[in-house]
Write a structure and sequence with these properties.
By secondary structure, the protein is α+β, with helices and mostly antiparallel strands. It contains 15 helices and 16 strands.
């Protein structure tokens, strides 16, 4: 084996590995809406049914205390990934990037032959009739895929079983169809017209990435030590202005790392907010330098490693901090999720303060709103748990179907002399327990109610 052959890099290029990641992300996004556990979805935010499903547990909209934890988990998770692996999310999992790769690399390049995968800078000549017709075909193909992507997005808010049922009555669900079509229209415009300008000018993530980077963040970096300076401090290209190239500089100025970049940057300038860490430049330079028996001048590594030859530290203050916070949020998420109430009960007093009946019986009327947030039907009953002198009247146990509501007027009554005060009425706080007769240990709630007892001179 020759020395050149020995130094040619082994293994799949990052581009192929990214394709695998794209397939996994796409399959995951398409499959999740169809996964149900005990009749509840893996993840669903239903505005129609006013429910939030997480890992097979359905939460009512009144129980959306989990949402802040999920949002913190999402944003801090992306920040943690950025601190460790740069904009790995952008290059390896972002829907915008996946859509552009499908349209540009699969449809335009592979299927229609309009462009070369290794040259993302050169746009096809659409003035030619053949290319123009191919572009129309490409847009039609992508429009179909955009409709699927838009529908998949909607499935996280309207479950597939309801979505397809609603489509059978389009006249009654114009808003749903309109949202799907508008979302698909934006995806088509974004991928065909806006392209990577979305990443550069629209997405706010690129603006905050530099704040999250440190010298141990993994990113695509060009080695000026080996390749030489292509640009000066003012970002002006000086390589072609020099009278003669330094003999020790290994960069061949082939520009392969430039032509393959989807965001149209030159990685040799250094860190730029347009870089999405797709590592296409790493693959390009690896191929070119590999033929010369040398390591790539552009590598996915850290500033410490490539400039100071200091090993990259994955375990450091920032990663420890992010890990601790993420673990805390996950723990809180599970703790709060474990407090799921399988029924909801609102207790509201009616406008009548109290009523005195024959025999000094004092009654208070309450309006109770029951909601079954479980996935099965239950029979509900009531009791006062902390005051044996106050009893419940005008209430009989009743059945309530899953996710349904029921209003009941409940009368709390007492014939006992609870307070002997001639100056004022006395509020007495009692605890009402509502529970499922068929499953009292799991399905129950405790609510406070204020029973108003009249002053003594009103009683006989």
């Amino acid at each position: 084996m020759s020395e050149v052959e020995a130094k040619v890099p082994k293994g799949s290029p990052y581009r192929i590995k990214r394709y695998y990641a794209y397939v996994l992300a796409t399959v995951f996004a398409l499959v999740v809406p169809f996964i149900t556990i005990n009749g509840n979805h893996l993840f669903l935010l239903s505005f129609d049914k006013k429910q939030f499903h997480l890992l097979g547990v359905a939460f009512d909209m009144q129980e959306l205390y989990l949402m802040p934890f999920l949002l913190m988990l999402l944003f801090l998770g992306i920040f943690a990934v950025t601190a460790i692996g740069g904009r790995a999310w952008c290059g390896w999992a972002c829907p915008q990037t996946i859509f552009r790769v499908i349209y540009r690399d699969l449809i335009e390049s592979k299927l229609l032959g309009l462009r070369r995968i290794k040259n993302k800078q050169k746009e096809p000549d659409y003035k030619k009739a053949e290319n123009a017709s191919k572009k129309v075909v490409g847009i039609i193909i992508w429009s179909i895929l955009a409709l699927i992507a838009s529908a998949d997005f909607m499935w996280y808010f309207v479950p597939p079983e309801d979505f397809f049922a609603y489509l059978q009555n389009p006249a009654e669900h114009g808003l749903l169809i309109g949202i799907v079509l508008c979302t698909a229209g934006f995806i088509i415009y974004d991928v065909v017209k806006l392209k990577e300008d979305f990443c550069i000018y629209v997405c706010p993530y690129s603006r905050v990435q530099s704040v999250l980077y440190d010298d141990d963040t993994l990113q695509a970096i060009y080695s000026t030590k080996r390749g030489g300076n292509i640009y000066n401090e003012d970002k002006e290209k000086i390589i072609f202005k020099a009278k003669e190239l330094p003999q020790n500089d290994e960069c061949t100025t082939c520009e392969s790392c430039v032509t393959v970049c989807p965001t149209h940057i030159d990685i040799r300038k250094g860190l730029q907010l347009e870089c999405i860490n797709c590592l296409e430049c790493v693959d390009a330079c690896t191929t070119v330098m590999g033929k010369l028996g040398k390591e790539s001048l552009v590598q996915w590594t850290s500033t410490n490693k490539i400039e100071k030859d200091i090993p990259t530290k994955l375990i450091r203050k920032s990663t420890i901090m992010y890990s601790a916070i993420l673990l805390l949020i996950i723990a809180l998420l599970f703790v709060m999720g474990g407090k799921k109430e399988y029924m909801l009960l609102n207790v509201n007093k009616t406008t009548q303060l109290y009523k005195i009946k024959e025999g000094n019986e004092v009654t208070n009327n309450f309006l109770l709103l029951f909601q079954n947030t479980d996935s099965v039907k239950h029979k509900y009953a009531l009791e006062v748990v902390d005051n044996k002198d106050i009893v419940i009247k005008r209430f009989k146990p009743f059945n309530l179907s899953p996710h349904k509501l029921a209003k009941k007027v409940v009368v709390l009554s007492t014939t006992k002399r609870l307070v002997n005060d001639n100056t004022k009425d006395t509020p007495i706080t009692v605890t009402i327990k509502a529970y499922a007769v068929d499953d009292p240990d799991r399905v129950f709630v405790l609510r406070k109610a204020v029973f108003v007892y009249p002053r003594a001179d009103k009683l006989k």
